[in-house]
């Protein structure tokens, strides 16, 4: 065991694996940061939902790939546990985003909020009150 509690010393990692893992981690962190900035910058809920949806799939995917590269190189055997996590994220993140957006649309339609953005694509309409 190393001083960090890892089974393999990170200094003993091959240079190609360290570089690949570092680049994937930097890419994942950048994508997640952009998604977080999207939450702060965009005005409406319907615009804000896109940042985290993309950040979850691409950012987490990059971090998971970095983990696979690191542990495969350090343990000298294929480590693919992260594929199960990635499959779960890729299967659930778009569905959750769609359900959250649909719930927001129905909430806005029931409250008759014309300015909220639920009727922007003219898919849903709010009937005029008489």
From TrEMBL:
Keyword set includes Transcription: no
Keywords: Membrane, Transmembrane, Transmembrane helix
Annotated InterPro entries: PhaG_MnhG_YufB
MF GO annotations: sodium:proton antiporter activity
Transmembrane feature ranges: 15-40, 52-71, 83-105
Cross-referenced NCBIfam families: CPA3_mnhG_phaG
Protein name (Swiss-Prot/TrEMBL): Cation:proton antiporter
Organism this protein belongs to: Massilia forsythiae
